[in-house]
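Ticket #4471: structure output looks truncated?

Reporter: J.K.
Steps to reproduce: submitted the chain below (273 residues) through the standard prediction queue, then opened the result file.
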Amino acid sequence: MTELNLQDLTSALSLYTSFFIFLVVLTFAAFIILMVILIHNIKSRKNLKDNRQFIEETIGVQEEERRRISQELHDTVSQNIKALLLSQKELKDHCRDTNLLTELEKIISLEKKNQKELRAIIQNLSVPALASVPFKTVINDLCEQFYAQSEIPCKFFVAPDLSLDTFTTEQKHHILRIIQEALNNVRAHAKAEETSVVIRQIKEQQKGSGLIRIMIFDDGQGFDSEKQPYPEDSTSHFGISGMEMRAKLLDGTLTVNSSPDTGTEVRLEIPLQ
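Returned output as attached by the reporter:
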């Protein structure tokens, strides 16, 4: 194989890499646009905002789109990136030009980074096996996954005597998505050095069994939640609106408390039946 052919192949691989990155971005853009339209419909039809069936249908569309995108990314983009990496390795083994080798190593490094990020996206879109694994383990795995993806330590604490497996699979799904979205906001916007997920039972003597309180803290830059209920970012607004809808399906409440330079707390409270 001549050095000219190697250079042509290197250029082609670089082009393919850019194309697959564009494809991932385009897919997510379509997903965000669909979700923004759904959220807008909810906001503009306030008489339906508290309608449980309407919210369930909206969440159902969201989850179906997540599943579709996750499968599509796994079956196409992920497999193509693997093939590209194999081709790049083979090309590197046959290359003797120092400059071309340097460029190939840059491309391979970028491709591995893309592969890692794509794997994280697929994991975030997918739902773990909630019926067969203790829910505490699922949440702990989510925290570990968050740390691996963001390099932000995530501590998880739940009272030893508190069972989370009394929730139905559907309830666990909503709780997991709320925690996941809160952690996504930490990674994307908080500029935090640490975050925590804390779950405890609050017993209310006058009302009987009390409630489960789930708190997601971070020590990031925060924002003034008294002046604005969401960070100044459209995706955060969309994400928190989705969290609020899921909280309604849990018959619970979701609040976001934050102030500049003191971090943010997302609190989900679910009444015990």
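Triage note (M.O.): checked the attachment and the full token line is present. The two ends are 71 Å apart (CA to CA).
Status: closed, working as intended.
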